[in-house]
Amino acid sequence: MLAQGRDESGQLRAWRVGRRRLAWRPRIARPRLEGADGGPFEIVVVVILAVLGLGHLLNWLAALLATSVVWPYRALSGRWPVEAYPLDPSLVATDRGGDLPHRRRVAGRVAAMKLTRQWVRDIEMAGAPGPGDR
Length: 134
Fold this sequence. Notes:
There is one protein chain. The chain is an alpha+beta fold. The protein has helices spanning 40-77, 109-126; strands spanning 2-6, 12-19, 79-86, 102-107. Strands 1-2-3-4 form a four-stranded antiparallel β-sheet. A hairpin with a 5-residue loop joins strand 1 and strand 2. The longest helix has 38 residues, at 40-77. The model is unreliable at 95-99 (pLDDT under 50).
């Protein structure tokens, strides 16, 4: 579910809120390319980017394979992680060690939907999910 709210500065931010479906959310490494001058350095950069791209692809494949095990476990156990994160890539810097800014495990699908709706209301009113929900 998407929610929009204004932060402290009054800027409109979009958030994605809901049950997490993948086992984890793969992230791609973003190396800085400064000083590319057309020499052999660019070949090295292309090789490094190809290796990073292959690594990212393998990470996605592993996440999808793990999801085939994690999804049925979550459905049977009734424990669902609910998460909310901003869609603005500039806010990823606030990401704590790969964890999403707001995440909570709840018991049952109904509780997950209730928490999702509560966070959407909080985001629309205050610009972020309520305090203490980290």
